[in-house]
Model the fold of this input.
Amino acid sequence: MTSTPQAHLYATVRTPFGRFGGALAKSRPDDLAATVLRQALARTRLDPGEVDEVVLGNANGAGEDNRNVARMATLLAGLPTSVPATTVNRLCGSSLDAAIIASRAIETGDADIVLTGGVESMTRAPWVLPKPERAYPAANTELVSTTLGWRLVNPRMPAEWTVSLGEANEQLQQLHHVSRERQDAFAARSHHLAHTAWESGFHDDLVVPVDGTDLARDEGIRPDTTPETLAGLKPSFRPDGTITAGNASPLSDGASAVLLGTAAAADRIGHDPLARIAGRGTHALDPQHFGYAPVEAAQKALDRAGITWSDIGVVELNEAFAVQSLICIDAWLARGLADPDIVNTRGGAIALGHPLGASGGRILATLAAAMRADHHRWGLATICIGVGQGLAVVLENEEAS
Done:
């Protein structure tokens, strides 16, 4: 009887994440994606023609992403035209979803090797102009930004579902009573840990530069950040609110790639896998409560991996907002998470940046590297997603078993 194939991570790479309008502003998203696809393959001895599929995440698709940015990037990266490619859009979770989809294809025997990841240029996201419903309208119309959040909202959607991401998290803050002081302290921690990780060389093998730029590190890290300096910032979404530009993730540009394959693919790839995908979880709830969705997504992934919170050695939680991150951590502590300090040990999106379609690949790569560096057997990557969803993946470091 043939055993079921299992999906393993073999190579990960990403660009530095740039600030909105910053060092990557002149780089097209298809070029950013092509950069990481090339570099991921360069870390193997794999013949590019042996890639069964390319699956990339992208939250926009309205501009230079050209709808199917995975196919565009695959061609630009120089892979054979025979390698098919598809683009996944689950908003912030797109590249983690790409890895989940690829892992299922591997486990069902539909593929042996899949190149995944994601990309977003929030700087270059275009404005869109709605088409008129009839010819020659006399009234004016307005351009709509596709950078972030709701656009061209269907009037049938309940108003409570379509609040801004920031307002949704202010509502979560009211429900869970997370103070401004805790949020600012968490944000300062993100910057300090990200800076320390870069200084220690942790990110050196995970990040590659983009041609035509001189950006070597994530552009948003501010090592001099303190809770006291953050306390001086004005609330961004409510006059009396707690969320500021300092305790939320910034608009960002960047790309990530993760190569997945079966255990048997190791000989063709040229080295042993970094980790095994052991469990997956998805969850959905009311759209305005999206920041809480990782709580249940993580639990489902743990259950499917056959482990509990007490087994987890490190967690990568995408920091969309400090408040939702803290709410998730508090919920996990109640369920058995041993120590909140195992979450985002190398900093998070508040410091590193959050290019929507690329962040899932970033947290998966960081998780695998942290597990190996710190000799943990089990780790969790999880992300909240606008409009009320969450994703999670459990990794196993088989060298630590």
In short: The first strand starts at residue 8 and ends at 14. The chain has a mean pLDDT of 97.
